[in-house]
């Protein structure tokens, strides 16, 4: 496996083509944030979701976030927010991805859902279109094997909130070509972001480590060593973290954290990833973090 993250560019890679139109599959928190980041940097976006309500909610979130970004001077004060809004096309039909230059798939973190998408977009999109899976733990090579373009598939693990994060964990599978890596780096550069390229193992770097960290923090609360606030305060005040592990879990969504831990446990056959019983109980009770209004903290 190639572990070298510094590659010599071909003439085409040295003078990359501008990526204008990007397809975003999944209109949840990550899809909304990614769409916002793309339109802020001049891209056209086709935002796809099977649920019209999700698309409407996502668009409302984007509009609110753009107003805040303008007020906080993160985007120029003369920015026409209505014009930015018109750069997003909402659709429930994957066929509307036929003319996009790049696709980022943000569908629900379940294999059955993701596996149903890739053969469809493979037959719909242009031959040169690159697909990026924004996944927490699913191996990129498994998704690539569902297509006739495995060399044009990679992982791009955007972090929340996408517009404010300058770095993206980018995953190279055994199939991913250097040209595809260059295209992804080009898109990120256009978005004022950079890639850190890693190789393809479940959880990659960020989630393989961070989910152990969050899960152990949940065990500490379950074992009554400390309350949630004190756990997070130790990491904020003693270690200088901007957010504690439990608030981070709430931000991600406790259901997503639970699912990712199960994927890691299954893929590595390692009980160190076994979810804390308290996490399982909270998800069963509908306490999912920010998205539900209550998790380890109230929102």
Describe what this molecule looks like in 3D.
It is a single chain. The protein is of the alpha/beta class and 299 residues long. The protein has two domains: 18-199, NAD(P)-binding Rossmann-like Domain (Rossmann fold, 3-Layer(aba) Sandwich), CATH 3.40.50.720; 207-284, Orthogonal Bundle (N-(1-d-carboxylethyl)-l-norvaline Dehydrogenase, domain 2), CATH 1.10.1040. It is built from twelve helices and eight strands. It has helices at 11-14, 29-40, 52-71, 81-85, 111-124, 140-144, 178-190, 206-222, 228-238, 245-252, 254-268, 277-284, and strands at residues 21-25, 44-48, 88-91, 102-105, 130-133, 153-157, 167-172, 194-199. It has an eight-stranded mixed sheet. Helix 7 (178-190) links the parallel strand 7 and strand 8 (194-199). Helix 2 crosses helix 3, helix 8 crosses helix 11 (254-268) and helix 10 crosses helix 11. The longest helix has 20 residues, at 52-71. The radius of gyration is 19 Å and the shape is globular.
């Amino acid at each position: 496996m190639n572990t070298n993250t510094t590659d010599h560019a071909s003439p085409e890679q040295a003078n990359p083509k501008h990526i204008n139109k990007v397809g975003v599959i999944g209109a949840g928190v990550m899809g909304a944030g990614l769409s916002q980041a793309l339109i802020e940097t001049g891209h056209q976006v086709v935002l796809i979701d099977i649920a019209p309500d999700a698309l409407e909610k996502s668009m409302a979130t984007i509009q609110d976030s753009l107003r805040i970004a303008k007020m906080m001077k993160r985007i120029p004060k003369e920015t026409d927010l209505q014009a930015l809004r018109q750069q997003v096309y909402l659709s429930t039909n994957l066929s509307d991805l036929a003319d996009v230059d790049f696709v980022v798939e943000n569908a629900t973190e379940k294999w059955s859902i993701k596996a149903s998408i890739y053969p469809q977009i493979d037959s719909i999109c242009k031959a040169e279109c690159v697909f990026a899976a924004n996944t927490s733990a699913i191996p990129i090579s498994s998704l690539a094997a569902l297509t006739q373009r495995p060399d044009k598939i990679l992982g791009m693990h955007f972090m929340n909130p996408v517009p404010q994060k300058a770095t993206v964990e980018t995953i190279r599978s055994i199939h991913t070509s250097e040209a595809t890596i260059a295209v992804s780096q080009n898109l990120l550069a256009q978005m004022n972001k950079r890639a850190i390229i890693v190789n393809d193992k479940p959880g990659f770097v960020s989630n393989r480590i961070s989910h152990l960290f969050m899960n152990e923090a949940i065990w500490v609360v379950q074992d009554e060593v400390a309350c949630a606030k004190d756990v997070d305060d130790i990491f904020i005040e003693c270690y200088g973290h901007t957010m504690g592990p439990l608030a981070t879990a709430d931000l991600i969504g406790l259901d997503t954290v639970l699912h990712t831990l199960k994927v890691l446990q299954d893929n590595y056959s390692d009980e160190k990833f076994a979810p804390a019983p308290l996490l399982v109980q909270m998800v069963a009770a509908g306490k999912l973090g920010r998205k539900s209004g209550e998790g380890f903290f109230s929102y």
